[in-house]
Amino acid sequence: MRKIFYISAIKILKFIREPGLFVIMLLLPLGFTFFMGNMHSGRVSIPVAFVDLDQSTYSEKLIAQFSANSTYKVFTASPQKASLMVKQRKVIGAFTLAQGLESAIRSGQTPKIQVQQVYETAELLTLMNDIRSTLAYIHGNIHIADAALTFIQQNKAESIDSKEIWEHAYDNAISKWFPSPPVSISMTRLNNPVTVKRQMMTHSSVGFALFFVMYTIIFAVGDILTEKQQGTWQRLLVFPLKKWEILGGNLLASFILGFIQILVLMIFGIYFFDVNWGNALPLTIALVAAYVFAISCMGLALSGVVRTPAQLHATTPIITVCTAMLGGTFWPLDFVQSKILLFLAKLTPQYWAIHSIESAIHYGGSFHTIQGPLFMLLLMGLFFFIAGLWLVKWE
User: Fold this and answer.
1) pTM, full prediction
2) Which residue, 125, 46, 47, 59, is CA-closest to 85?
3) Which distant-in-sequence residues (6+ apart) come within 8 Å of 270 by Cβ?
4) 236, CA 20 to 30 Å: which among 113, 247, 276, 313?
5) Cα–Cα distance list, 36 to 40, 204, 233 (Å)
6) Tens digits of residue pLDDT in 182-206
7) Please, which residues have CB within 8 angstroms of residue 165's CB and are 6 or more apart in sequence?
8) What is residue 383's predicted lDDT score, i.e. its pLDDT?
9) What pLDDT was estimated at residue 157?
């Protein structure tokens, strides 16, 4: 066991003398966390196009109502231009208000609105519901304005400005909805009161820490390949060292370096990005340790597959990026609906690490709640370790 610590200490000292990779893998996740975490800090307007073929009071009021809503960025365009905007993804959809919209609503028929879209999104479905409710809202206000104008015309002998009175009645009807609507809804969050920005900052801090630490760990384990090229590996085999002691020393060094890197990123996240890593820090640290162990063993297996450091440097980004995208370190997997992708995600260490760590951060819990992901990470690490023992060439 003492020999493992000696080998590990030599590896760490070598890494300290050449700290470039470690420093870069600290700065990159901090930069990505800052930019990705702040992407959702401001208000984002949803772009939408309207094609007004009806040119009626209803269509005019509908477009005006959405233009006044800061949630949407409204464009009015011709049918050809609106179709082009949809194809170029400049808007999430184009709504064509067909001729006869007003007459259909007034006669009690169902008005037809044509929708052009590239693919269906949650925002587009919400927008469709908003259009339906806004048309009903406009329809009620127009009826009020019509009734008010009819009453004034019947009771006023002198001539009146019908358009001015109608607009005044319509605006007055709208004003009755605000600032106090007929129904008030009070909502209480049952989970932790975390804003969207806070959630994205937390996910970015955890996700990028788990992603970039893979490079540090894999390249640290992959130092075996450099030793083979320089002849150091052959000299180690001459010494009275067992194979598992040599590999154990390499794995322990990469584990310590990776664990230190994540701890440093956790401290930066807490004090510079105001990321709450949760009250259950022992559980979080246990999950981090299991993840670092799994990635260290993955690096060992990868070092047995490739032959040279150049091949390792070319292969590592492909593996890390693909597994990180599948595992959900770049973005939450709540947006993914494909059952195949979700199944493949569960085959990556990142999936079990980030989901369990975020659960521990947001909801706390006990060892019982993390024992499943912890077991999966240790099992993956054991699998990669056995594969590494079999794949590593000792000559």
Assistant:
1) 0.60
2) 47
3) 276, 277
4) 313
5) 8, 6, 42
6) 555 454 444 444 444 456 667 777 8
7) 148, 149, 152
8) 93
9) 55
Q: In what order do the strands lie in the sheet with 72-76?
A: 72-76, 46-52, 94-97, 113-116
> Sign (positive/negative) of CA torsion 198, 199, 200, 202?
positive
Stated length of the chain: 395
The CATH number corresponding to 46-175 among 2.70.98, 2.60.40, 3.40.190, 2.80.10 equals: 3.40.190
pLDDT at 196: 46
Q: Which residue matches tokens 């037809």?
A: 112
Spell out the SS3 assignment of the chain: CHHHHHHHHHHHHHHHHCCHHHHHHHHHHHHHHHHHHCCCCCCCCEEEEEEECCCCHHHHHHHHHHHCCCCEEEEECCHHHHHHHHHCCCCCCEEEECCCHHHHHHCCCCCCEEEECCCCCHHHHHHHHHHHHHHHHHHHHHHHHHHHHHHHHHHCCCCCCHHHHHHHHHHHHHHCCCCCCCCCCCCCCCCCCCCHHHHHHHHHHHHHHHHHHHHHHHHHHCHHHHHHHHCHHHHHHHCCCCHHHHHHHHHHHHHHHHHHHHHHHHHHHHHHCCCCCCCCHHHHHHHHHHHHHHHHHHHHHHHHHCCCHHHHHHHHHHHHHHHHHHHCCCCCHHHCCCHHHHHHHCCCHHHHHHHHHHHHHHHCCCHHHHHHHHHHHHHHHHHHHHHHHHHCCCC
What pLDDT does residue 69 have? Answer: 79
Which residues in the chain show pLDDT less than 70? 36-44, 108, 120, 122, 157-159, 170-201, 233, 278-280, 335, 362-365, 394-395
Q: Which of 385, 25, 7 is nearest to 223 (CA)?
A: 7
* Residue 11 contacts residue 253 (beta carbons within 8 Å): yes
Which amino acid, residue 366? S
What angle (nearest 5°) sits at the alpha carbon of residue 188, between those of residues 186 and 191?
A: 165
Q: pLDDT value at position 294?
A: 93
Q: Residue 76's beta-bridge partner residues? A: 50
Cβ atoms of 131 and 113 within 8 Å: the answer is: yes
- Give me the pLDDT at residue 173, please: 63
Domain-by-domain residue ranges, the chain? Answer: 2-39+194-391, 46-175
